[in-house]
Amino acid sequence: MLKISRLTDYAVVMLGYMAKHPEHTFAAGEIADATGVAVPTVSKILKALAKARILKSTRGAKGGYALAHTPEGTSVAAVIYALEGPIALTECEGERGGCEQSSSCDARGSWEVINRAVRAALESVSLADMARPGGKLPDEYRIPVASIQKSIKNY
What we know:
- By secondary structure, the chain is mainly alpha-helical.
- The protein has a single domain, classed as Winged helix-like DNA-binding domain superfamily/Winged helix DNA-binding domain (Arc Repressor Mutant, subunit A), CATH 1.10.10.
- Helix content is 48%, strand content 5%.
- It has helices spanning 6-19, 28-35, 39-51, 76-84, 108-123, 127-130, 145-154; strands at 55-58, 64-67.
- The chain is elongated and about 60 Å long.
């Protein structure tokens, strides 16, 4: 089973909430109250997302965190990358560039195609998509296969 970490799951929930009010600056406590995520966890995630430039932070009495880009301009892939690192299903596509068997692995190219497709699919989903009321996408919403195919060719 493929899974993202709990922190990344919380980040998507938090950012989905923030995406509903894209011009607002949020305090950590406000996000914690709205999402049910504990304040220390919210703070940790907010700092990581600010470091990745998904959020911008402002100091001071009226400070807090705000989206650095529009909800439509921030992909779920960017959030996952910020908290988990490169998106890959296997080690041969990770930052280390391979495993012990990489020099003799015939499956490496196949995994590369799959990893690109997964990344392209995640890049096609934005925070705006995640913030839709009730978390439901319209019936006609589909991940655009043509853009995934184009993205795979460009990798």
